[in-house]
Amino acid sequence: MADDLPNMLILQNKALQQYIYETSAYPKEHNLLKELREATVEKYKALSVMTLTVDEAQLLSMLVKMMNAKKTMEIGVFTGYSLLTTALALPEDGKILAIDPDKEAYELGLPYIKKAGIEHKINFIPSDAFPVLNDLINSGEEGTFDFIFVDAMKNDYLRFHELTIKLVKIGGTIAYDNTLWSGSVAQPEDEVKNEILRPFRNAVVEFNSFIAADPRIESTIVSIGDGLTLCRRLY
Description:
alpha/beta, 235 residues, 7-stranded mixed β-sheet, globular, 8 helices, 7 strands
């Protein structure tokens, strides 16, 4: 399976992508983020493409700071690169609710989180996200999150959206990763041959169309990493 993994970067010019990394991204990457990124590649090899790219992580960090976010959520954690990124960007009293059923992957990143001194900001729940989100809504947490980052199963994005739109505050932001799905969204369905991309391509296309027409938000797709959709709740 790992051998079939596509290049999950929208920018297909490798020299230009490397220029962005070396000129802007790598020089500003926190040392612990670099160590975690390298540890993820060492353990997961080709599957490490599930980690956020360095430039996309830095964009999220800037967004969190510009929003003055304090209460955030992450759905889909993997080894915690994006989680550590967000935690470092939050103020000392900031909090992240992190949800992922894969505790083993999270534990790879935990030593780096502890070394950064930000473990107190993170509440990691090893669980499927849907029961957690429903419990939050039922317990009165609607409209209380400043920022929510979603990087999970793409065929669940529409279901996630109907829950996250309730939990994020008016004026808050939801970010969905991989919404250009290695460029396959712009290809005719029958031309998508990759066995990793093909099963989820239609779900991503459907999600993008829904988001574009959703009157509850203003949104944009940023062509960074594998595509990042930013949604700001209007009401």
